[in-house]
Each structure stands twice: as C-alpha cells, then as structure tokens.
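# nightly structure sweep
# worker-07 picked up a monomer target from the shared queue
# config: single-sequence mode, recycle default, output format = structure tokens
# input follows
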Amino acid sequence: MKAAVQFGEGLRIEEIPVPRPGPQEVLVRVHACGLNRADLAMLAGRTHGGHGGAGTVLGLEWSGEVTEVGAHVTDLRRGDRVMGSGKGAFAEYAVSDHGRVTKIPASTMSFEQAATLPVALQTMHDALVTHGRLQGGETVLIQGASSGVGLMGLQIARLMGAGMVIGTSTTPDRRERLKDFGAQLSIDTTGADWPQQVLDATQGRGVDLIIDQLAGTQANNNMHACALQARIVNVGRLAGSRAEFDFDLHALKRIEYIGVTFRTRSVEEVREINRRMCADLSPAISDGRLSLPIDRCFAFAEVVEALAHMARNAHFGKIVLAMPA
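# output follows
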C-alpha cells in the first residue's frame, strides 16, 4: 500500500506492507485523513507518545470502510463506514483499536467531512465535560478557537448548556467567523488588555472554565481572566511550553489547573473517552449540529503541500487529505 512515511524532517510516499489487525483491532481502507498539529511536531523531530521518528507513517485521524476485524471485535463489521483516531492514518489502510473507531452516524456525511471529526470530538468532550466538568449556565473561554479542535469546543460548550461562550483568535476575519460556531464574544489575545475584556463581559466575575490551547506566555493572563475557583484545562501549548507562572494569583483565585494529553493514555482510557463522547454527542453529530468546516482538501499525493499549508497557520477549520479512489 502507499503511505506517507517520515524520513528525518521530510516526508515521502512509499510502498509498505498492509498492516494486520490484532484481536481487538480493525483494518480500515482509508478514504480521507484529517491533519493535526501533532503531525507537524513529529516532522520537526518530536514524538507523539511512542509515535514518531524515521520510518513513521504520519497521521492521527481518518475515515473509511472496515475491511477486516479482529477475532474479539463484535461491534464493527466488514463494510461499515467509520471514522477513527490512531497512528498511521496517512496511508491506504490503517489499523486501530476498535474502541477508537466510530460508525459514521449519517448516511449523507462524506468521508472528507467525517475525517475532520474524531480528534476534535474526543479532545474537546474530554476537556469540557470530563475534566472541565462544565455545568449549565457557566461561562467558557476557548483559547485558539479558530482551529478545528477550537471550533468544536465552541459548539460542544453551547450544546452542553454554557451560559456564555468566548473564543479567541489573533486574526480579525477568523474572529468574525467564530460567532457562526457559537462564540458570543471573540477576543484578540495579542492585546495586553484582553483579560480585562473578559472581566468586563462577565460583570467583573471572570470565566468559570478555560480550555487552553495556548499556555506559555498566556498562562498568567488566563488566570487573570478566571473567576474564583475556575478550572483551566490545558490541551495545547501553541504559545510555548515554558513561561513564568504566578503562583500567588493561582492560589488567590483557588484555580484548578488540569493538564491533559492523549500521549500517556492507555487503550482502555481512550476507549472510555470515545464511549463518553458518543453517548453525549452522537445525536448532534448525526443531525449536523456538530460539524467542522474544511479549509482545504488536498489529494494524498499533495501531503507535503498540505502540511506546509497547516504550518503557515492561515487556515480556518480542518485540512483534509483525500485518498485516491
């Protein structure tokens, strides 16, 4: 099969053997793949959990058709249209644990649309609901809201009953578009006064929950924008993985700071994340209340160009690879 294989900090399409599913896994003929920033991180020489380095098939999410199931898999069968997460997505075939794979819930949903969803749904439901413990009426701030994961966060927050949803982006046109995905207020975090804008919008109280994809130099600003006993769930570090931290402010506001990543999760933990997400969100996925815009769809042969497009950080929503028919 053809696959996008890493060599050094480069990528090339090579012929490699089709993987075989284990007893708890499924083999999927991939029709489309979603790009994620972890793909760029691996190309830059960092690992994603145990994944990365020379010879790695990149890609973390895909959609397609099941072609083979492991001996212990009972919830999926050959021919099912599915979407899922796992390693080795940028290839004609991918293997994943059955618990990370979900049937595409709507017959009208294209493979390209389905490929945008798994990582965003799993990440944001886990952050907002499981770790963020979002309650109806609470105020939520999504940092980095114009990314695919961020846009999904805005929608899930509204769906789960948030009272006010605030999104951030550093680009004016992208901030304007956030309202179409549930943001009642859009903020530019490049201005030093942005925490005061949040306080003004919440009558001086601050937000109850921040889903933070920035961290780094924005860590203290996040805490300034928080209410007493707020929660901050850190899912990304686009503003840096090292910065000063105001421990006194953290203590004064009694903020709960929670770090999450999929890189250290067990198979059983990821199955549970996917199960909880499906239980809460499947109806809204099926009827189109939860969806993501495709910024651009590249042919599989253009995978290098697709990753370069992501690296320029000029996209809104998801970038997708379409596999040849």
